[in-house]
Amino acid sequence: MCLIDYNEKPFIVIWEVTRACELHCLHCRAEAQINRNPYELTTDEGKALIDDIAQMNGPMLVFTGGDPLMREDIFELSAYAVEKGVRVSMTPSATPNVTKENMQRAKDVGLSRWAFSIDGPNKQIHDHFRGTEGSFDLTMNAIQYLKELKMPLQINTVISRYNIDYLEEMAQMVEDLGCVLWSVFFLVPTGRGKESDMVTPAQHEEVFRFLNKLRKTASFGIKTTSAQHYRRVVLQEQIREMKKAGTFDAIKYEDSLTTMDINTIDGLGRAPKGVNDGNGFVFVSHLGHVYPSGLLPVSCGNIRQKPLSDIYVNSPILQNLRNPDLFKGKCGMCEFRYVCGGSRSRAYAVTGDLMESEPFCVYQPKAWIQHQRKLKAVN
């Protein structure tokens, strides 16, 4: 397998085409507003960005927001990207803008997939989290339209204290809806997101083990976002199984993801290895700012001054994020740092330092334990 060199280009580019949205989600990192910002990237600027992505030969482009459907030119931009050979997906909000006519337009221009958010197995939980009564019903109607149009469905779910007790019901719903992918997000306290709405570090681990078990029998793919330590849980089980079978032979952690089916994006291609903020993953804001991710709002440049391809390769911030040996605390000493690395977004949100350890990981690396023992002996 020929691996993508994340030092040269990203695997995924997220473009926040607008921050306008009619929902009022409790966790919204964009703190979305009703009206569009007049300084958003223009249609021509968007096409220039798409040209740049196309010449990088490979990155997938995701239109996000806010609500992408708040832009009148979104299908023009989508068609342009498809014509340039870019794989495109969209994450619209469940509002009255999601009509069957708009979905037909998306299919006609060649969008690979639509993704909808469902954050609870019923309207009470989902609507509360989305801050808008009727959001659940609108989402279900939209999913029915997708089925009628025979378009693949991806469900995004944000894990929080509001739905942590309903994982089995959520998984069954994803199964029943015939989804190709369940993208499970883990809350980062930025924007409207609050640390008090997050699940505990121990609960993170419980969810990872649930997903790891589920992936073996589910008819859909499973992908995690802002949960890089899920990879560590999957890899730990693989190591245990190999040791039990007598086939374990000093696995190279940095290469192991080539055989791990945990970053599947069915219908859009597979990430050959795990992505992280600024490391295979990059975000362009509605104003053109380039961030390691939308949940890590540290500007690395602006595409109005330099092309994204230039910023991604040469930004010192992004270069540092692509070097796990520079991570601080236990993340920097962890034997899984090349396949995990922890959420840089969550580290920044909680500690103010994007190179600090993942604050919601329970794992104690061997080198870290030894380091702590030495410090204790000295003191």
Description:
By secondary structure, this protein is of the alpha/beta class. It has one domain (12-325): Aldolase class I (TIM Barrel). It has 13 helices and 12 strands. The chain has helices at 43-55, 74-83, 100-109, 123-130, 135-149, 167-176, 201-214, 229-245, 308-314, 316-321, 329-333, 344-351, 366-378; strands spanning 12-16, 60-64, 88-90, 113-117, 153-159, 181-186, 221-225, 264-265, 269-270, 276-277, 280-284, 290-291. Strands 1, 2, 3, 4, 5, 6, 7, 10, 11 and 12 form a 10-stranded mixed beta sheet that branches. The protein has a two-stranded antiparallel ribbon with strand order 8-9. Helix 6 (167-176) links the parallel strand 5 and strand 6. It is globular. The protein starts with 11 loop residues before the first strand and ends with a helix.
Please give the structural blueprint:
Blueprint: E1 12-16, H1 43-55, E2 60-64, H2 74-83, E3 88-90, H3 100-109, E4 113-117, H4 123-130, H5 135-149, E5 153-159, H6 167-176, E6 181-186, H7 201-214, E7 221-225, H8 229-245, E8 264-265, E9 269-270, E10 276-277, E11 280-284, E12 290-291, H9 308-314, H10 316-321, H11 329-333, H12 344-351, H13 366-378
Parallel strand pairs: 1-2, 1-11, 2-3, 3-4, 4-5, 5-6, 6-7, 10-11
Antiparallel strand pairs: 8-9, 11-12
Helix pairs in contact: 3-5, 7-8
